Amino acid sequence: MTAKADNIQPQPLFDTLENLVELIQGEARPVSPYIASSGVKGAHTDYEHALAFLYSYRGSRDTFAAYRREVERLLQWCWFVKQCSLTELKRTDIESYIDFCQQPPLNWIASKTLPRYVEKQGERITNDEWRPFVAKKTRQTPDNAPRDFALSAKALQAIFAILGSFYTYLIQEEYSESNPVALIRQKSKYLRKRQQKDKIRRLTELQWSYVVETAEMLANDDPTSHERTLFVVQALYGMYLRISELTATERWAPQMGHFNMDLDGNWWFTTVGKGNKERDISVSDAMLAALKRYRQFLGLSPLPSPNEPTPLIHKTRGRGGITSTRQIRNIVKYCFDQSIMRMKKDGHDDSEVELLRSATVHWLRHTGISDDVKQRPREHVRDDAGHGSSAITDKYIDVEMRERHRSAKNKSIKPEF
To answer: Which SS3 state, helix, strand or coil, does residue 283 take?
Structure first.
């Protein structure tokens, strides 16, 4: 099967959510030459059912993106490697597919996340550089380095969960007679159980101090470009926001008016997060001061009025709020890169510098939660973070880990006489 896959140039099957909605609502959908080239009878019917399945998750961009990724990969493998319809897959085929995902051929792997489609002469066409799998390089990885790909335990769990839901949908639609994913009983050979909680990826105190100081320096030196940078970094850390909670979507568009004061004079920020759940986040005095500074730069009153429609994170060009999570990532990445340069210049330990190179935007949320859970009641942090249970918040409590290591630090290996 790998030999077949080596000769295939995978092409994307599903566009962005906005373009998918246009496709669904269109009067007719043209037959895809790429799908037809598989020669699989029933491939286009598979595609129509997959399209309808993904459309049902249009309420959440993040969920849609995750489901699109897994369904798209399965269809590519099913048609072009196994060369059959979804309805023909058996339990052993799904096991073969998972093995394939753990070590896909090089021509199925990209070194960075790329858009599936691009605009060319007013027409939307497939991006030839896109691939179903991504082995992201770190900032210090040479361009000619081999693309090592490995699925994490969380990624494997996503395969089972999402494809299991997909087949449940196909059964309900009377398109498939069985769920081959659910028939895999011994998932333990794929999914490892951990004895202890996963390590939270966060910035150290030194790294965070450099990041926030760098953001302040950038804002002071070039307010037009970086007052927004400073506020984004402060909001991600100070209110534990997810990157999706700073971007405007059809489901939710963050506005200044989502900051509101209660009858006791306390300020809150309302957002909609994972699972389309609305929550109120308590706003600290420091975060309120950050908001005032940002609004002053925008030429607004110090504090927002009730229901003020001003976008929370404005575009630098055009009107409205930022709609791309990639743009938020680029803003934070620039701040991280400048922080790394300052740390190297100041002669800090290479391990601190290299760890910051691997940091992502989500680490700011983790860092804010980890710092606050040391001094705030766990239940308060849980509700502000939007955790479904205290058990999730407990993952951020590392006091026990410190004590555990302290007790082991002076253990001897060689007997002392």
So the answer is: coil
Helix (H) or strand (E) holding 118: strand 117-120
pTM over 0.70: no
Alpha carbon distance 369, 231 (integer Å): 18
β-pairing, 267-272 vs 278-282, is: antiparallel
200-246 pLDDT, tens digit each: 788 999 999 999 999 999 999 999 999 999 999 999 999 999 988 99
In this prediction, residues 160-176 reach a mean pLDDT of: 91
Q: Element (H or E) spanning 125, and its range?
A: strand 123-126
Residue percentage of the chain with pLDDT more than 90: 51
Q: Please report, as a single letter, which amino acid is at residue 6.
A: D
SS3 of 415, please?
Answer: coil
Sign of CA dihedral 265, 266, 267, 272: negative
Longest dimension (CA), the chain: 87
Q: Where are the domain boundaries for CATH 1.10.443.10 in the chain?
A: 205-403
Name, in order, each residue with C-beta under 8 angstroms of 88's C-beta and a sequence gap of 6 or more: none
Q: What are phi and psi of 321, to 5 degrees?
A: -95, 165
Average pLDDT of the residues in 9-17:
89
Per the structure block, which two tokens stand in for 147? 């693309």
205-403 maps to CATH 3.10.20.30: no
Token pair, residue 164, equals 């299991």
Look-up of token digits 């897994």: 70
Any residues with CB less than 8 A from the CB of 76 and at least 6 apart, and which? 8, 10, 13, 108, 132
**Looking at residue 385, what DSSP letter applies?**
H
User: CA-CA distance, 110 to 106, in Å (whole number)?
Assistant: 8
Q: Show the tokens assigned to 303.
A: 């504090």
Q: 133 - beta bridge partners?
A: 109
Please list, residue by residue across 316-352, b when 16 or more beta carbons sit within 10 angstroms of its beta carbon and e when fewer do: eeeeebbbebebbeebbebbbebbbeebeeeebeeeb
Instruction: Using DSSP bridges, classify how beta strands 133-134 and 109-110 pair: parallel, antiparallel or unpaired.
Output: parallel
Nearest Cα to Cα of residue 178 among 291, 236, 235, 93: 93
- pLDDT tens per residue across span 282-308: 999 999 999 999 999 999 999 999 989
